[in-house]
Write a structure and sequence with these properties.
The chain is of the alpha/beta class. It contains 20 helices and 19 strands. It is 36% helix and 9% strand. The longest helix has 26 residues. It holds the Pfam family LRR_6.
């Protein structure tokens, strides 16, 4: 009994001193266990031999240390050889296939894309608005090693990306050719922003980054910007409506010198960033190649406008400037347009809803006509402009490249409208004209008669809530019948309740000539309703001859039961797919 206890004690000590087995040893033991259970047992050394194997007794037993080691090595080799033979004969493991040999990566990617209803594309991964789950994001991350040529990743409008982005960013080193990353409205968290910052180093070719509509980024932008490497290739940075703070603005300003290739900077709808606009403006000199600057609804004030104007002297390549929706800059243009006039390459200027004053208009009337490359001008929703806009509108003749003029809801007077009509004669490339919500247009559309005859390129005409009368519609009909406005695609005549049924009849009779018209809106004002009269049949007859029409707005027109049925059956009867908004 005592001898057995001693042997157990020795065995326990041996197990304590035995080195930990390797993973391969574990696999071997599993196979040994299987053989034992089937009745086959490999001869094991005695417990006593195992116990004394690790001890050194010198040369008293007739063997020196080297002989003992040699014997152990030989024995060990014999045991390993027997084990290998046993494995190959009895329980041969399945053959492992390397990633290079396995086609499963490509197959898995194709299956993943098909599951989401998308076509597999190994260069452009477009998964926008696919209702991705967290598991989908994890699966996508595991597929990146099989997409070495990937250049674009778009995961926008997938809320579940938020909180899981790290699983993706840690795999981005497999796609180091990545140029475009879009993560709009993904509910990104602070951890996501930090992990994205860490990934910048492994995507050195990144040129476009869009993080718009992720409100949790606000206050945490530094987690991203501090990781940007000097001289990175970023050309486009969009952070629209991300609840950015003044501190975020300062963080952004600090890294502008690290992204000298920046061409597009969109900070729109971040109302708190205006407080740091002076700091940002000072560092805009570090991005002299900037082509688009969007500061729509950024809480800019008059002093912000002054700082921005100073920065414009360094932005000779600027093509688009949007400072709309900043109501507190009104009255500040008189001191902030010195360098605006020097933007010879500017093509788009958006000043809508800026509470521009009459004094501002006086200054802008001197500056805007100097922007010789200007193609789009938006002065809409500046109600205080009133009659003071006529000097500027008259001088638009000096901008022959203008393609879009938007002056809706500006309280134009007849004199200003007349000046615009005269200037429009010199705008041969005009494609979009928006005069909505200017009551003076009603009854005076004839002032635009000659201009509309010459506007061979016009595609969009908006005359909503202009107090139009039957005479104005008759004028449009004559223009149509004479072959003018042939390229018109969108016509907005909504909220003109004063047009008589007779006026609509005449208009609908001539409507069939608009072969390229795709959208027509004749809705009534929200506070009103009216029976759809005798012109309804003329309208349906005209619709059959408008092959491009896709949408018809008829809100608040009251249809009889028979008229409603005719409208409901129109698409089926005529094999069309028009969306009726009634």
């Amino acid at each position: 009994m005592e001898e057995t206890d001693d042997i157990k004690s020795c065995q326990d000590k041996h197990e304590e001193n035995t080195p930990k087995s390797s993973p391969f040893d574990f696999v071997i033991k599993q196979f040994q266990g299987k053989r034992s259970s089937s009745g086959k047992r490999k001869e094991q050394p005695s417990i006593i031999k195992e116990f004394f194997r690790g001890f050194d007794f010198g040369k008293s037993e007739g063997k020196d240390r080297r002989e003992i080691e040699k014997t152990e090595i030989n024995n060990s080799g014999d045991d390993d050889q027997r084990e290998k033979q046993d494995l190959s004969v009895e329980d041969e493991p399945p053959c492992l296939i390397s990633e290079e040999e396995s086609p499963s990566g490509k197959e898995r990617f194709n299956q993943f894309m098909e599951k989401l209803g998308k076509k597999p594309n190994t260069k452009n991964l477009d998964l926008n608005n696919c209702a991705l789950s967290a598991a989908d994001v994890t699966e996508l991350a595991s597929l990146l090693p099989f997409l070495p040529e990937l250049e674009e990743i778009s995961l926008s409008w997938n809320g579940c990306v938020g909180g899981t982005l790290k699983s993706l960013t840690v795999q981005l080193h497999h796609v180091n050719l990545l140029k475009v990353l879009r993560l709009n409205n993904c509910r990104l968290t602070a951890e996501d922003v930090a992990s994205l910052g860490e990934a910048f180093e492994v995507v050195p070719q990144l040129e476009e980054l869009d993080l718009s509509w992720n409100s949790n980024i606000g206050g945490k932008l530094s987690l991203l910007t501090k990781k940007l490497q000097k001289g990175c290739k970023l050309k486009l940075l969009k952070i629209t409506d991300c609840n950015l703070t003044a501190k975020d603005g300062e963080s952004l300003a600090e890294i502008l010198n690290a992204i000298p290739n920046l061409e597009v900077l969109d900070l729109s709808i971040n109302k708190h960033i205006g407080c740091s606009m002076k700091v940002i403006a000072q560092d805009l000199k570090n991005v002299p190649g900037l082509k688009e600057l969007n500061l729509h609804m950024c809480g800019l004030k008059q002093d912000s406008l002054q700082g921005l104007d100073t920065a414009l002297q360094h932005l000779a390549e600027l093509r688009k400037l949007d400072i709309s929706g900043n109501k507190e800059i009104g009255g500040g243009f008189k001191d902030s347009t010195v360098h605006l006039a020097s933007l010879r390459n500017l093509e788009v200027l958006d000043l809508h809803q800026c509470c521009v004053t009459e004094e501002d208009m006086t200054v802008l009337s001197q500056v805007i006509p100097l922007l010789s490359s200007l193609q789009e001008l938006n002065l809409s929703s500046n109600k205080n402009v009133g009659v003071s806009s006529y000097p500027l509108l008259g001088r638009l003749r000096f901008l022959p490249k203008l393609k879009s003029v938007a002056i809706s809801n500006c309280g134009l007077g007849e004199e200003a409208f007349s000046s615009l009509a005269e200037a429009a004669l010199h705008l041969p490339e005009l494609e979009i004209l928006d005069l909505s919500w200017n009551k003076c247009v009603g009854g005076n559309l004839k002032l635009l008669w000659e201009a509309l005859k010459l506007a061979t390129e016009i595609q969009v005409l908006r005359l909503s809530s202009c107090n139009l009368v039957a005479e104005d519609l008759a004028l449009l009909t004559l223009l149509i019948q004479d072959g003018h406005l042939a390229r018109l695609r969108k016509l907005d005549l909504s909220y003109n309740n004063n047009i008589s049924d007779e006026g609509w009849v005449v208009f609908c009779q001539g409507l069939a000539v608009f072969k390229e018209l795709s959208e027509l809106d004749i809705s009534l004002r929200p506070s009103s309703c009216r029976d759809c009269g005798m012109w309804f049949s003329e309208l349906l007859a005209a619709l059959t001859k408008l092959p491009a029409l896709a949408e018809l707005g008829m809100q608040r027109w009251v249809l009889s039961e028979s008229q409603r049925k005719r409208l409901e059956n129109f698409n089926e009867d005529n094999k069309r797919n028009i969306r009726f908004d009634c």
